[in-house]
Amino acid sequence: AATVAGASAFAEKWHARWHLELPARKPAWEFTQRMGRDHGYPVAAGGGLMFVGCEYNSALLALDSKSGEERWRFYTAAPIRHAPVATEKHVYVGSDDGHLYCLDMKGQVVWQKSGGPSNRFVIGHERMMSAWPISTQPLLHDGVLYFVAGYWPVDGVYVYAVDAATGEEIWVSDQAEFRPNREIHLIDGKLQIDGDNGRAVRVAETGEVVRYKPTKPPQPERPEI
After folding, report:
1. pLDDT in tens, the chain (225 residues)
2. Number of helices and strands (H, E) in the chain?
3. What is the DSSP string of 25-66?
4. How far does the chain reach from its first CA to its final CA, in angstroms?
């Protein structure tokens, strides 16, 4: 009972200072529960701002953390489906347009990096999008930004490590043989990238594959002809 009372007293100290109403999202895989990952708006905070990635207008919104007032917005060429990463000076956001953007706190582009081998656009989820969309939330660690571009292995899935300050490429690998759609984790100097039908572990410094675990369903035996 004491725990409940304490929790209640703690909750009474919280109240909404502002709220923002946005259109209901249209997830990429709205009819497939197994792959649903973008039902809510992805957010991040840094430098006194709150950043909201939008699917409906392909924009990153920068809101004042204290008042909720919109300070600026940055439009990409396709939906933003994954949460950005923010520091006190920069925000990093990936888009279905196939680019990873680094913006300063005024919304100006510091650098941008294309994840695919070309600027080919396709129709996906009733929208125009890159054939190699940014398919995971970026990961920032010790001045290095890691991200993944591409979804279908047949077209190529690219894993990047770039200098967070300049966007200069440190290493890139196109050896992913699964569909990434979750977060990137960094554990003991190794990147773990999960997907729908596999998982890969790489050395963060070099991109070398340490372990690859496919999770493909068993295939029926082919009849002899």
Report:
1. 444 555 566 567 778 889 889 988 887 776 665 555 677 788 999 999 999 999 999 999 999 999 999 999 999 999 999 999 999 999 999 999 999 999 999 999 999 999 999 999 998 888 899 999 998 899 999 999 999 999 888 888 999 999 999 999 999 988 777 778 767 899 999 998 887 777 788 999 999 888 766 555 455 566 676
2. 1, 18
3. P--TTTT-GGG---SS--EEEETTEEEEE-SSS-EEEEEETT
4. 72
Grouping H, G, I as helix, E, B as strand and the rest as coil, residue 83 is: coil
Q: Which two tokens stand for residue 183?
A: 């977060």
Q: Residues near 196 by Cβ (< 8 Å), separated by ≥ 6?
A: 34, 35, 178, 179, 181
Pair of tokens at residue 27: 């997830």
Q: List Cβ neighbours of 130 (8 Å cut-off, separation of 6 or more).
A: 78, 96, 97, 98, 99, 115, 116, 119, 120, 121, 122, 149
- What's the Cα-to-Cα distance from 141 to each of 137, 164, 165, rounded to whole Å? 13, 9, 12
Residues 157, 115: Cα–Cα separation, whole Å: 9
